What does this fold into?
Amino acid sequence: MKISVDVTPDQIAPAMAWLDGKVGAALDKRVKSLEQQQSRNPLFGPYFRDTFPYELALVKARRHQRQTGLLPSGEEYGIAYGFAAALQRIHAGLGEKGRARLESTLRGAMKDAYGLRPLAYEVQMATHAARRGYDVECVDLDGAGQFDLLLTRDADEIELECKTTSPDKGKKVHQSDLVRLANLLLPTTAALANYGGCHAIRVIVPARLATSDPGLAEIASLVRTAVDRRGAAGDKDGRAEYSVIQLPHWPERDMSAREESAFLNEIFGTKNRPAFWHLRERHGFVAVQVDSDQPDASVEALSEDAKKAADQCTGKRPAVVAMQLMEITPDELKFLLDNPSPAHDVAHAIFKDGRRAHVDSLALSLPARSRDVDSGKELWGTVAVLHNPSPAYPSRAARSLFSANG
It folds into this structure.
C-alpha cells in the first residue's frame, strides 16, 4: 500500500467526517467521561492531556465545527487532523478483513486505558515509513502475520513492530493513583499552604500505592495524622513523615516538567520519585512525595515488552522494534542514548545470546509534538536508535529507517 502523506487543509474536513461516522458518538462519550472526572478532581487535567491528546483535540475540534461550521486551526489540532487523514487512507487501502479489524481496533480504543495513543503511534510509524518511500503493508490488521508493518522499497524489506509504553510501566506508584491521592490530600495541603511557610510530606508504602478509593483514603488519613502530630504516623498501609523545610527559592507555577522535577529532587534528596506540590504564591508551599519500600522494575518490564515485540516478527527478515516513551524530554532521551543507561539495558535484553538476531535496531521515540497542515511538515519527537552489533540480516535500509539520511 502506498500511503499519501501530504494533507492539505481542504482534506481535513472529509477525514474528520469519516472518523465521526466510525466512532463519533463513542468519542464524545469518552471525552465527556474524562471531563466529568476532571470536574470532580481538577488535578486529572495534565494527566488526561498527556494520555488522551487525540481524543481531547478531536472532540474540541468537532464541537467548534458544530458551533461555527468551521474546523479550528493551530498546533493543538495538527496531530489529531494528521491522524484522522492518515487513518482514513490506511483504511481505504486495506482489504475487507483489514478494514473490519481496523474499525474494531478503533472502537476498542474508545474504552482502552490509553485510548487512541497506541493506534496513533502505529499510524505515525506507517506515515513515517511512507515519507521515506516505502510501501506499507499492515500485516497484523490484514491477518497475514503477528507483527505490525511490512515495509518494502525496491529490494529492501523491513518488519516493524510498534509498542506504546505506559509511563507507569513497572512502577509502584501509578500516575492516576497519585492524582487521586493528591485530590484526597487537597484539604490538608491547602490548609498548610494557607497557614504559610514551607512544608514537606513523604509517604512510603510497603509495595504498590493503593488503587482503590478506600486504600487511598487510608493513606490520606495517615498523612493528616502525621501533620497533626508535626512528625510521623504509620500502620500496615504505610508511613507518612511531615517536616517544616527551608526552600532555596520560591517555585514558579509555570516551571517546565524538568525544572519541577529538579526542584522536588532537591527538596527530598532523591531523584525522579513521584511527587506533587501545592503553592500559595510567596506565602505557603507544600511538597508531597510518594515512594515504595520496593524498587521499581521499569527496565525489566520494558525489556519484556521489547522481547515480546521482537518475538512477534517472523525472524526471516531484518526487523525494527519501535517503542514510544512517555514523560521524558528530548535531551533526556539523547542522554540515555549517549551514556550507559536503562535504554541500553532494554536493547541488550533483545540482542543478547543472538536469540533475536533478526532484530536490527531498537528505536525509542517520543510522541510527535504537532503537525503543520498548511506546510505539510511533520514535527516529530526525538528518536534514539540502538543497533544490534551482530544482526542476522545486515540491512542498511533498516539501520537508516530513522536516520536523517534514511
Residues 30 and 110 are 6 Å apart (CA to CA). The two ends are 20 Å apart (CA to CA).
